[in-house]
UniProtKB/TrEMBL annotation:
Organism lineage: Bacteria, Pseudomonadati, Pseudomonadota, Alphaproteobacteria, Sphingomonadales
Membrane-spanning segments: 12-36, 42-63, 83-105, 117-139, 171-196
Pfam families referenced in this protein's UniProt entry, alphabetically: Rce1-like
GO biological process: CAAX-box protein maturation; proteolysis
UniProt protein name: CPBP family intramembrane metalloprotease
Length: 228
């Protein structure tokens, strides 16, 4: 397991300011989002795909500027290319697990798609597809990973794997709301947190997250869904 370098590492101050900033920025984004025309689901989907990136990057900047103000302690470190390949494979495997989770959830609680507008954007033509892919499979994974792995999982790793992987993944899941997305986000968070704990770098988690979200966009275009 990666044990870190001998510099100040993110701790509770960074966790708290990061999560508070994330909630505030997400709320601000929601206020702006509510002004979009209700009858334009494709536009809503393209804009909505950037929510996690907007809030994640802003929250990371708040945590970064608090005490440390240097990127390596937050996991901005080079990593062997094999970890990036492993991460991409885990992203594909994670999307397969997503199907199982959604089918179990639907059988237990019924199914309501909270990401309908994102699917609408992906299916809205070439331009909306690529715009939503850029927002949802590049910008949002980057923003969420640098916050939830680079700050939260990073700081919690000092308490052991149960906190660095388990607790941080639950926090990541709750940040996505109470719906079918909750268990799916926890699963993705656990895979990314495992990679971060092993490598000390945010880049494998970013690759995993990009591949997972990108697979979701492609599946939307193809009309593939784990539930009716």
């Amino acid at each position: 397991m990666f044990t870190g370098i001998k510099t100040r590492q993110p701790g509770w101050p960074e966790i708290l300011i990061g999560l508070i900033a994330f909630a505030v920025l997400l709320f601000a984004f929601a206020l702006g989002f509510s002004q979009l025309p209700a009858d334009r689901p494709i536009l809503q989907g393209v804009v909505g795909s950037t929510a996690g990136g907007f809030a994640g990057v802003g929250a990371f900047v708040a945590a970064y500027g608090l005490r440390i103000r240097t990127l390596p302690p937050f996991g901005f470190r080079r990593v062997a290319s094999r970890w990036l390949v492993i991460a991409a494979g885990m992203g594909v495997a994670g999307y397969g697990l997503n199907y199982i989770i959604q089918m179990v959830y639907a059988a237990s609680f019924g199914y309501d798609d909270p990401q309908g507008i994102l699917h609408a954007a992906a299916r809205g033509g070439a331009l909306p597809f690529f715009a939503s892919l850029l927002g949802g499979a590049a910008f949002t994974p980057f923003g969420e990973e640098i916050l939830f792995r680079g700050v939260v999982a990073n700081a919690l790793n000092r308490y052991g794997a149960w906190a660095g992987i388990g607790v941080s993944s639950v926090i990541f899941g709750l940040a996505h709301g109470i719906s079918v997305i909750l268990p799916v986000a926890i699963m993705v968070g656990m895979l990314a947190a495992i990679l971060f704990r092993r490598t000390g770098s945010v880049w494998p988690g970013i690759i995993l997250h990009c591949v997972y979200n990108g697979s979701n966009s492609v599946a939307s275009v193809l009309g593939i869904s784990p539930v009716p």
